Amino acid sequence: MHNIDSQRIMVIDDNPAMQKVLRIHLESSGYIAQVAENGNHALKILKDGKFHPDCILLDIKMPDITGLQLLPMVKSGFPLVPVVMLTAQTDLETGLEAMRSGAFDFLTKPVRKDGLLETIKKALGYREILLENDRLTKENREYQQNLEKMVEERSGELMNAYKMLKETNLSTVRVLAETIEAKDPYTRGHCNRVRVLSRETAILLGMKEQTIESLEYSALLHDIGKIAIPINLLHKTGSLDPDERMKFEDHPGIGENILKVVDFFAPCLNIVRHHHERWDGLGYPDGIAGDSIELPTRIVQITDAFDAMTSNRPYREALPRESALKELYEGKGTQFNPDIVDVFIDKKVYLSIENLN
Q1: Which residues pair with 86 in a beta bridge?
Q2: 3-state DSSP assignment of residue 286
Q3: What band does 88 get if pLDDT is binned at 50, 70 and 90?
Q4: Residues 343, 234: one domain?
Q5: Torsion sign over Cα 48, 70, 55, 141
Q6: From residue 31, how far is each of 39, 53, 245 by CA, in Å?
């Protein structure tokens, strides 16, 4: 990690008062701040190349170029620089739209210093991982391009590079998984339990170890899109109204967008996007059915549902294990793949998480 003193934050906001507040918060915390008064000013600074931001704070509503219009331009030129959007409390939907378009996170105005610094810290931590991942991916690619003529003398180096790349990606998984639980403490441990249940089920189904490894990463990250859902919605004790339901059902697509910037996560994208689909085609977001849903995704649909049913939620108490198993059995052929449900129940896969938190 770089020292805070060398980390550069660009603030793009047309409001002089907001510019001043954000600059004071950032500089008093040791960051280097560069203010752009509007979208065109920001593009000029970035094009000049004299200021290389590590993170960008971008206001959504600006007169010349809106934040949503500027976001893809910035991400196109600086794909490894996280962008945190600034939006009004009354415009949360636009903040979610920005995350679907590639923003790392969003903050609502008025911006509190502690919330600002915590979000920037997470964004910069994620950037460090992306930079390391990018470096190692390029290094690994170079090794592979020259592998034929260098295999004998450099095979050891190639293995080390791959090992380092894998370790870096595992760090990414851990950071993102912790981000999910920090957002929704009610589901603490849920992703890890889904991972264990999914691995055990996949072994019984005879899946290859490499596929199982990707399945485990996917299980840990299947709910990453929930970081874009407002906390009050995640913790709501009553039924969701249609608008709230629509926001909640956005999270698989948001999760896919968050992960697709890292090549390593390509095998995870299908599970993250489709873990709320159903065997009968009545799920979301795409309404796919049956064998159109990939096998690893069908596994996570079942393990995710079982752990959710047997865990406390703000809107209900946990179901007893037998009741949850009955729900799975009754969902065969409608919500769930019948054969996988049979394996899960008959082989007592659910016992594998008895001693997990």
Answers
A1: 59, 107
A2: coil
A3: confident
A4: yes
A5: negative
A6: 22, 11, 39
pLDDT-derived band at 153, boundaries 50, 70, 90? low
Residue count of the chain, please give it.
Answer: 357
| Residues 6+ away with beta carbon under 8 Å from 252 | 225, 272, 273, 274, 275, 276, 284, 285
Q: How far apart are the first and last CA of the chain?
A: 31
Task: Give residues with Cβ within 8 angstroms of 179, minimum separation 6.
Answer: 122, 224, 227
| Position 206 pLDDT exceeds 80 | yes
77: how many CB neighbours lie within 10 A of its CB? 11
Displacement of CA 340 from its chain's centroid (Å): 27
On whether both 74 and 196 belong to a single domain, the answer is no
Q: Are residues 117 and 21 in the same domain?
A: yes
Q: Which of 346, 321, 319 is nearest to 332 (CA)?
A: 346
Q: Where among 171, 206, 230 does a domain terminate?
A: 171
Bridging pattern class, strands 83-88 and 32-36: unpaired
Please tell me which residue, 268 or 169, carries the higher pLDDT value.
Answer: 268
Does 18 share its domain with 84?
yes
Q: Is residue 68 part of a domain?
A: yes
Assigned token pair, 109: 């105005």
* Mean pLDDT within 141-147: 73
Residue 328 CA from chain centroid, whole number:
27
Query: Per-residue b/e over 106-128, b at no fewer than 16 CB within 10 Å?
Result: bbbbebeeeebbebbebbbebbb
Query: 178 lies in a domain?
Result: no
Same domain, yes or no: 19 and 69 = yes
Give residue 326's pLDDT: 98
Distance CA 140, CA 320 (A): 49
Domain match, 113 and 143 both: no
User: Do 102 and 166 belong together in one domain?
Assistant: no
Phi (first) and psi of residue 317, to 5 degrees: -80, 160
Residues 198 and 330 reside in one and the same domain: yes
117 is in which domain, residue-wise?
4-122
**What CATH number is associated with residue 116?**
3.40.50.2300
Number of compact structural domains in the chain: 3
